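Entry:
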Amino acid sequence: NVFPLSFAGELGIKIKPDTPVYTFPCVASYVGGDITAGVLASRLHKKTELCLFLDIGTNGEIVLGNSEFLVAAACSAGPCFEGSGIKHGMRATEGAVEDVVMDRKTLEPEIKVIGGSVPIGICGSGMIDLAAEMFLTGILNQKGKLQKGVSKRVRESEDGAEFVLYQGNGRDIVLTEPDIENIIRAKAAIYAGCSILLKEVGFTFNDVRKVYIAGGFGKFLDIDKAIILGMLPDISREKFEFLGNTSITGAYLCMLSRRMREEAEEIARKMTYLELSVSRSFMDEYVSGLFIPHTNMEAFPGVKKLMSG
């Protein structure tokens, strides 16, 4: 979907009315211009090797390909990594717990807060860290259930079992079992989307040479923890690269270059969209991912080794 050039006055943008406004071409309903801009910024469409592009948000958008082909899909990961639907969830802003490490002897958490202030909530990367750390220490089982008696921080509440991450200033910060269920559903959708997209074009995760992670959420993401949880594939960590906000980078490129705008339109035309919501294979893979890290442990050899060690 290519949009005609508009002008600021037509759109109600409060700048000089005759300023031209460029709109990135969309690929499908859930793969919009931000993803076209992301592919442009990553230069994925110019690579010779097989690359995977992930923009993790409410809808996890995925693009697979190289200079020869591009296929895209979207999976409904839900807004939990942006703080919604999580009792003490919040976006990755000042006051959010972004990093958690659990002491292996005392099972006490050590937290890192964005801005170094007193914590007021937990953002997506903190949720992933905490869930992975609880799993590795036995506080959380493969089904995502908190194990009572393992840690004194596990307690009962009106929402069921919960883990107390922080106590202070008259307000506890907790992660509840319903929170954990939301996190597991989100990570299962992302992994399933990537897995099915690869299978549809005859590849596996081992064939991928680069995984680009876009968006503000990815900036704080611990790859190892995301793999332990089963959100990202258990492949060489050197293959992962954070790109930041690629939609803004793509917009900058198109502001500066007519050729970049032409490339954006080429990318959108070239990209094939796969609808995962009607795929039985996607649902099967999604259900298999509703465990930590996955029902198929052979797909996670590194995590399997950690668990056995």
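The longest strand covers residues 59-65.
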